Amino acid sequence: MNRTSSGRRPSADPNSIETKYLKSTVGPVLSRGLAEIVERRPNDPIEYLATFLYKQADNIRAQKQKEDNAKQLEIEKQKAKEDEQYRLQLKNEVRALRKHEENQRRQCRRDAEELAKRHKELAAVSPPLPPVHKEDNGVFIVEFGETELHRQAAIQGANLSKLLRKNYHSIASRNAEGKTPRDVAIDADLQENVDQIGIFRRK
């Protein structure tokens, strides 16, 4: 063993790694324990120091646990905050989506109502009469365009007199085939309709 000539161990090197480690880990606690022994002067200093060191170790563990718990609580608070923000964002997105869908449904209803209104208005408007011009013999000739009189002239039992009273000029109108209502009645072999038209032609 390394001993001095007097038989004692050599003093530890204050700059050695071991010495620095002991100073950084147990040095402060050990110093406080020794200071308490000097102050209190217990009957058994060694037992007192051992108890003191155990208590200090418990305190250190408790403090570390407290710090860990505080960190965990902070993490949980942050996570709860993020979860709440996500729920609010999701709620807002759902609300915006529902509002968009409701606006689309309303727009579709308005478009459908507008279309139905236009169809109703168009159905209520009589088709414009075809332009007429007067020939040299004084007879009004209507330019090509099928009229209601053309359509009714091909129907058996139609009341053509009523139509002719409303619009006498339609008697001379010609459809796309160049035929008058009387021609249509003749082609349909409806003599009654031919006669009704003939009565108005003679007036």
From TrEMBL:
Coiled coil as UniProt keyword = yes
Please indicate if the UniProt record lists Transport as a keyword: no
UniProt-annotated stretches for the region Disordered: 1-20
Family membership: Belongs to the dpy-30 family.
Biased composition of type Polar residues is found at 1-18
Native source organism of the sequence? Rotaria sordida
Q: Which InterPro entries match?
A: Dpy-30_motif (IPR007858), DYDC-like_DD (IPR049630), Sdc1/DPY30 (IPR037856)
At the top level, the lineage of the source is Eukaryota
What start-end ranges are recorded for coiled-coil regions in this protein?
Answer: 63-118
Q: What is this protein called?
A: Uncharacterized protein
Gene Ontology CC terms, in alphabetical order: Set1C/COMPASS complex
- Record keywords: Coiled coil
